[in-house]
Design a protein that fits this description.
alpha+beta; Nucleoside Triphosphate Pyrophosphohydrolase; seven-stranded mixed β-sheet; 2 helices; 7 strands; globular
Length: 130
């Protein structure tokens, strides 16, 4: 399964989202984004997901990291993370339990999905600058 996720930064803070209490991985935190549909490009998936989840239109984004993660149930995902440099609109919560802007140094305090943890480590150690 291929997944795209957005790193949206504003004044030194990243936008993070808490999954709803229904569905898979209830109340875990993640970066906004989602699954790439069959026949859909990664950039198109990112744009679609952010439009659906946050009501924003991506104007410029660049892939900054990727890795694979295997979950205990056997599901393997390839995650691609994009730094969103420019977008139209104001991010609003359309599907999550909640969304918050968090200082990069505080990311480790949040209960992220396992697949996001390698990126969280890179960000908090300043190995990846957004």
């Amino acid at each position: 399964m291929e997944v795209v996720a957005a790193l949206i930064c504003r004044r030194g803070r990243l936008l993070v989202c808490q999954r709803s209490d229904a569905g898979s991985f209830p109340l875990k935190w993640e970066f906004p984004g989602g699954k790439v549909k069959t026949g859909e490009g990664h950039a198109a998936a990112l744009m679609r997901e952010l439009r659906e989840e946050l009501g924003i239109e991506v104007r410029s984004a660049a892939e900054v990291a990727r890795h694979k993660h295997g979950y205990p149930d056997g599901t393997e995902v390839e995650l691609r993370f994009y730094r969103v440099d420019d977008y139209d609109g104001t991010a609003e919560n359309r599907v999550f339990q909640k969304i918050v802007w968090v200082e990069i140094e505080r990311l480790r305090e949040i209960d992220f999905l396992e697949g996001d943890l390698p990126l969280v480590e890179k960000l908090t150690r300043r190995e990846l600058i957004v």
